[in-house]
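Job type: complex structure
Entries:
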Amino acid sequence: MTGSLSLAARAAYILRDNSTGLITRAAPSLYPHQWSWDAGFNAIGLASVDLPRARLELDSLFAGQWRNGMVPHIVFDPAGAVRYWPGPAQWQCQRFNEDAPASPATSGITDPPVHAIAVDRILAVAASAGAREHEITLGWAAHLYPRLLAWHRFLARDRADKETGLIRLFHGWESGTDNSPRWDVPYANVQVGPDMPGYTRSDRSHVSSAAQRPTDGEYDRYLWLIEEAREAGYDASLLRETGSFQVGDVLFTAIYAAASDLLAVLAARLGKPDDAAELRDYAAEARAAVLGHVDEASGLAADVDLRTGEWLRTETYAGFAPLIAGGLSAAMRERQVALLTGPRWAGHPDLKWPLPPSTSPSSPAFNPDCYWRGPVWPVFTWLLTWALHRSGEDAVAGQFRSASLKQLGDHTYAEYYNPVNGAPLGSHHQSWTAAAALDWLLAEQ
Ligand code: 9WN
């Protein structure tokens, strides 16, 4: 087998191995359940090898959607044999909020809305898989569509901040970039209460070194925010009063803008012009909010601590939110691409591969081994290549794709990689890393 064929074959095997039949576990042992944004990326990877399974991945995720439209960040696998903490017993969503489904059990917070991007990509793959597959997939998308619309409406209604226009998060986990230094300032203001229950972390036993995972102090805050959210009945209007972590996330907002654009296209295709107009409005508002938070001096987008109004300017992946939101002027696009490929990012001389790390190596917050504080995340590289292609930046997208495939040549399909020495970190056989490889290798770019 050639290098790419064996890389694709192994990636397909990993996705099958991590599947319960209904959901794809985010990772074999570290994350034995279905995560929302992972499911979106995993469905994209699955599309190239097994369209029915790709469709099922999103159907299974949306089985956990709440009546208010929220797609929770975790849908728990009831048969999950491996212990994950915090599990359904900590969240107790159904007991505290009647919008939560009785089954499957879910978490009570949300995750970035990549799903409409996934549906668009699955439809594109189906279009070249023959008339019958295309027709089935279109029918499936029409069936899923009302759930996607309810999801985007939930974000507009319950989460779009009136002042900044950014999507408001109540937990760093909602951003998907848990311990990124972008959240250091707001987390420093979270005071863990005296009635915080004791707990035992299970995550560190699944990685080769504890230094790759968040600290105990960070985990105390993560758990405390769950206590707060549960106390507020997982209700956004109450949490706006009581939540001790409230941020406007430019990256989440950018993903929402891009996904709303694509959902508007689907709505129009399904003969729903009013929905399409509504979704285009969501996209335009979200995009304007992202562009309104670009720091002039650095050219990077900045999150906002909504409790203080402070802009959070640490140089992280989130700075490239405008590129992901799309619809940029040529000048803004060129500036973002130049930054991304320049010496503070993918062009930094110390890097093993010319790929953007989660935090700039020039930032004092950079830590090459620790989770979202420095490592390269292949799935995030995939998101950037998707955004670059969409903006017509095919050459840069192609460079990232080939560098990433070299990075994945170690066949560990790691969750993240040390950008300086190339070591695989976090979980191995991480589903979304395998999914990114499959899309790069098998789908039309
Ligand atoms: C908490 C599953 C998830 C990803 C997140 C990543 C990590 C969970 C954890 O794993 O978060 O949600 O237990 O650390 O940060 O982006 O969705 O892969």
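Summary: The chain has a mean pLDDT of 97. Strands lie at 34-35, 74-75, 167-169, 247-249, 303-305, 310-312, 416-417, 424-425.
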